[in-house]
Amino acid sequence: MSMNIVSRLTGNAQVRTVQGDRQVVSFSVAVNDGYKNKQGEWVSLTEYFECSYWLSSKIAQYLTKGSLVELTGRVSARAWVDRNEDVHAGLNFHTSHIRLLAKSSQTDTAQAEKRTAKKTKVETTELVEEDALPF
Asked: How confident is the model at residue 132 (pLDDT cuts 50, 70, 90)?
């Protein structure tokens, strides 16, 4: 059964090579939801999914922390016991389609800083050239 989720990445995507030369893009997302309890207070719920995408590793460069994405795929649950014998559970999302909805605010901020730095450099160069005039 296939499903769609809309969520934000909790970190930058990573590309891993497995089984010789096959590559998988791994990333995690947080899905926010909630409900009103009997007292009328809003109760927020956040579910985290560990995602894998096998079709192309090139998408990884666009999957940055905070980016808003729509994912299509299927969910599976996993459970494990760690070295301290603590029991853990998690959700995997086997992604078959990724649609980028919005860049992360970090990406937007970095691009704005680059534009500002470039503009400042041009303005500084223009000032130096004017000051270099002998009159």
From this structure: very low
Q: How many other CB atoms are there within 10 angstroms of residue 21's CB atom?
A: 6
Cβ-in-10-Å burial (0-12, 13-18, 19+) of 78 comes to exposed
User: Could you state, in order of their start, the residue ranges of all structural domains in the chain?
Assistant: 3-103, 104-135
Q: What is the pLDDT of residues 57-89, one digit of tens each?
A: 999 999 999 999 999 999 999 998 999 999 989
Residues 6+ apart with CB under 8 A from 96: 2, 55, 72, 73, 74
Q: In angstroms, what CA-CA distances link 96 with 21, 23, 76, 110? A: 20, 14, 14, 30
Looking at the domain 3-103, which fold is it?
OB fold (Dihydrolipoamide Acetyltransferase, E2P) (2.40.50)
